[in-house]
Design brief:
Blueprint (H helix, E strand, L loop, with lengths): L2 E6 L6 E5 L4 E5 L6 E2 L10 E6 L2 E6 L6 E3 L2 E3 L1 E4 L3 E5 L2 E7 L2 H31 L3 H4 L4 H13 L3 E8 L2 E8 L12 H13 L3 E4 L8 H8 L4 E9 L2 E10 L8 H23 L11 H13 L1
Parallel strand pairs: 3-4
Antiparallel strand pairs: 1-2, 1-11, 3-5, 5-6, 6-9, 7-8, 7-10, 10-11, 12-13, 12-16, 14-15, 15-16
Helix pairs in contact: 1-3, 1-6, 3-6, 4-5, 4-7
Length: 303
């Protein structure tokens, strides 16, 4: 009777809820919802998922935009197998779990926290000694922060941007060259960076397959990406830059837990930038090649 419900709200990290015998999960936009989905297609009290007589059941609570099981609209339904649900325009994966799968889920969460702790300790060490051992070995905090985000997010490439006097410069890059950012296949990624900076919030994309994603997300799918995350670097309301990472390979979705850990990396990077700007150390950073500036700066201004 153990199960897991994962909700994929566009532009946001996946929301995951474990379910066990006797649980009743209220889904909606209301503050007291067990699974609160902040999306305009979701009613305040949208649906309820619960276990009864050893089986999982889904009941729509007279929502405006409906509840669906594998694409079919329902008023109520018994769920006997893992499947896709949809509430309004929000897609959710319902997975039945045996004991081994539930244990593997818990182990993965624990391992990610351990990884995050190790990465955080590494970043703190570099921040304390960025003019000695780590600097001498070629490791800077921007580079280490980018690699930490990519590792925890399971991504294979990315870059770290900073805003210097209105121009975006790349302080670190991982498996990306300027030439790769030219063309339609990268348009969705640059749009995500722009939204993260303009809205001052993290932007996350998890591919769920098929033609589920409209608009800007569709351009990310067309670019062949399976996962994308962009974290703004903030000093209060001021945007200092952003960290971007993505992958083309299949893998687990980025969840709210993952995002919480990733944002801790972004906060440390922002503090480093603030300190270095106070000491005018950024003036010592070699100028970014023109093609990076033209690709990132002009594209972001046009979006």
């Amino acid at each position: 009777m153990q199960a897991r419900l994962t909700a994929f709200v566009p532009d946001h990290a996946a929301l995951t809820r474990p379910l066990g015998p006797g649980d009743r999960l209220r889904i909606g936009r209301a503050d007291d919802s067990g699974l609160r989905l902040e999306h305009p297609s979701i009613s305040r009290m949208h649906a309820e998922l619960f276990a009864s007589d050893g089986r999982w059941q889904l009941a729509d609570l007279h929502s405006k935009n409906g509840s669906f099981v594998e694409g079919a609209r329902i008023d109520s339904a018994v769920i006997d197998t893992s499947c896709w649900l949809r509430f309004g325009d929000v897609h959710c994966e319902f997975a039945l779990l045996d004991g081994a799968a539930a244990e593997a889920d818990a182990k993965r969460r624990s391992e990610r926290r351990l990884t995050a702790t190790a990465c955080t300790a590494h970043l703190d060490a570099i921040a304390r000694n960025d003019s000695t051992d780590d600097a001498a070995s070629g490791q800077s905090l921007p580079d280490a922060s980018l690699r930490a985000v990519a590792e925890l997010a399971g991504c294979s490439r990315g870059f770290l941007l900073v805003d210097t006097h209105g121009r975006h410069r790349v302080l670190a890059a991982l498996a990306l060259e300027p030439s790769q950012m030219i063309g339609r296949e990268f348009a969705g990624s640059l749009s995500a960076v722009t939204r993260a900076i303009e809205q001052r919030r993290a932007v996350v994309f998890n591919d769920i397959g098929g033609d589920a994603w409209p608009g800007a997300c569709a351009s990310v799918v067309q670019g062949g990406l399976r996962t994308l995350v962009c974290l703004p670097l903030l000093d209060g309301d001021r945007v200092l830059g952003a960290i971007y990472a993505d992958r083309r390979e299949a893998g687990p979705p980025l969840t709210t837990l993952d995002l919480e850990l990733l944002e801790a990396f972004a906060e440390r990077t922002a503090l480093w930038l603030i300190a270095h700007r106070a000491r005018e150390d950024l003036a010592m950073v070699p100028p970014t090649p023109l093609d990076w500036n033209s690709i990132l700066g002009e594209r972001m201004l046009e979006t």
